[in-house]
Write a structure and sequence with these properties.
By secondary structure, this protein is α/β, with parallel strands linked by helices. The protein has nine helices and eight strands. It has a single domain, classed as Divalent-metal-dependent TIM barrel enzymes (TIM Barrel, Alpha-Beta Barrel), CATH 3.20.20. The radius of gyration is 18 Å and the shape is globular.
């Protein structure tokens, strides 16, 4: 099994997409994860990735709507446009934590229909505020619709449960069986992102996350998954803590994400 590494465009400083992609390519990443709603002309994006020889992992996080029907319409219209571009992979922020189970489940099924017959990997991100906001909330969806594929970002669950998921082993195991993409960010009981994952005070959280990621690698291998995408997804302020009054970041996200890629390359057993 191959692991491909992606850089999250949302954590880049202000610059053109082409400049960002060139920098990402120079650091040895296989691709970049990009929120597709950030451009008014999506058709320009895929050729730019191809020009710089990076894989496009399309993120779909920006659907809006004051009601479920309005949200569903926007979600599916945006997703249909993204599918038409034929990216390598689509990572969706799906549903809301206040939609009903039936409403969120219908979104998962509709999304799967849109990629049916294509080679596009479509996953739904574990994220606060979405259908997957907690370990207990997610499991019934997997039991009802096992075709659901996940982007595992367990840092969100750490905050929701105020724990390192010590008492959620059964839910973690169930989610790992459906995981096809990792967001490699380290969180803890009080934050979805520690200020620096390699600081000694965060060793426990880093070690626990690495154990989870290794279990995902092992699960993917046992399921015959040929390629596992990993996005090293530490984000800028306000995800990253800042100094008071100045809003200056306490660390370099660019350096942290690169260090995380190297750390995983050296520590994950494939």
């Amino acid at each position: 099994m191959k692991i491909s590494y992606y850089y999250p465009i949302w954590s880049m400083p202000a610059m053109s997409l082409e400049e960002a992609l060139v920098k990402i390519k120079e650091k040895g990443y296989d691709g970049a994860e990009y929120a597709m709603g950030l451009s008014s002309d999506l058709t320009e994006i895929k050729p730019l990735f191809e020009k710089i020889r990076l894989k496009l992992l399309a993120q779909h996080p920006l659907a809006q709507g004051d009601t479920f029907e309005a949200y569903r319409k926007d979600y599916l219209e945006q997703l249909e446009q993204i599918v038409a571009l034929n990216p390598t992979h689509i990572n969706c922020h799906t549903g809301k934590d206040y939609f009903s189970f039936e409403e969120n489940l219908s979104l998962l099924k509709d999304a799967e229909k849109l990629v049916s017959g294509t080679d596009i990997l479509l996953t739904h991100e574990i994220h606060r505020g979405r259908f997957s906001y907690s370990p207990m909330a997610l499991t019934p969806y997997l039991e009802s619709f096992d075709e659901t594929k996940l982007t595992a970002d367990f840092s969100h669950w750490c905050v929701v449960s105020e724990s390192l998921l010590e008492n959620h082993a059964q839910y973690l195991s169930r989610a790992i069986k459906n995981t096809y993409h990792i967001h490699a960010r380290v969180g803890n009981q009080e934050s979805p992102q520690v200020n620096h994952p390699f600081a000694p005070e965060h060793k426990e959280a880093l070690d626990v996350h690495l154990q989870w990621w290794q279990k995902i690698v092992d699960s993917c291998k046992s399921r015959g998954v040929e390629e596992l995408p990993i996005t090293c997804e530490f984000g800028p302020v306000p995800y990253l803590q800042a100094l008071p009054f100045t809003n200056q970041p306490v660390a370099s996200i660019w350096d942290i994400n690169f260090e995380m890629m190297k750390f995983l390359q050296n520590n994950l057993k494939v």
